[in-house]
Amino acid sequence: MADRIGARHPSLQRLRRLSGRRSARTAEGAFVVEGPTLVGEALRARVTVEEVVAGGSCPGELLDRAAAAGATVRRADDVALARSLDAVTPQGVAAVVRLPHRTAEEALGEAGPLALVLVGVADPGNAGTLLRSAEAAGAGAVVFCDGSVDPFGPKCVRSSAGSVLRLSVARDGEGAEALGACARRGLRTVATRASGGVPYD
Which residues contact 23 (CB under 8 A, 6 or more apart)? Predict the structure, then answer.
């Protein structure tokens, strides 16, 4: 049976804090996943789901799965939940997930034959699209370097459609160090360009 919580409950305050500030995500070692589809993806992925907060429309089956996975499950008023999240359209459920702490070297060790290194990618929607593209192309890792957006911010998480949960992702890397790690692991490195390039494959 899920606990029922009010608008001032610490769980909702935590969702608001983690959704709004990169510094909070770093300090607490956690990030927010919104919506039943992405919460379901988190429960299937190799991540630790700490807590799930659901509104009235959330499927009970999803909450049962969350509880079975060891997450704390709470019920909240739909309006209070929506006000605690980043999305404009109410998502009905959110989860707090442990932030993976990987260096670029560690992420690239899980890359397989293909990795993506992002340098100075500042738009979260574009970064999420690149995460999806990397997964579709068979990459095992994505490293965010040199001022790139936080891949665990809510807009990037949504735009990635779950790829950020399935790939080995590192943030706050240095581009030169990441490329050096690629070379040490025998990965051939190529750069991308907006037009006139050769397809990567």
Answer: none
The residue among 111, 102, 97, 103 whose CA lies nearest residue 153 is: 97
Average pLDDT over residues 38-65: 94
CA–CA dist 168, 158 (Å, integer):
17
Place of tokens 């990618």: 121
Q: Are strands 141-145 and 72-76 parallel, antiparallel or unpaired?
A: unpaired
In this prediction the pTM is 0.92
Which among 7, 154, 157, 158 has a CA at the least distance from the CA of 75? 7
Phi-psi region at 4: left, alpha or beta (left = phi > 0; alpha = psi -120 to 50): beta
Give the residue ranges of DSSP H helices in the chain: 10-20, 22-28, 36-44, 60-68, 78-83, 104-109, 124-136, 154-160, 163-166, 175-184
| % of the chain surpassing 90 pLDDT | 81
Per the document, the length of the chain is 201
d(CA 107, CA 170): 6
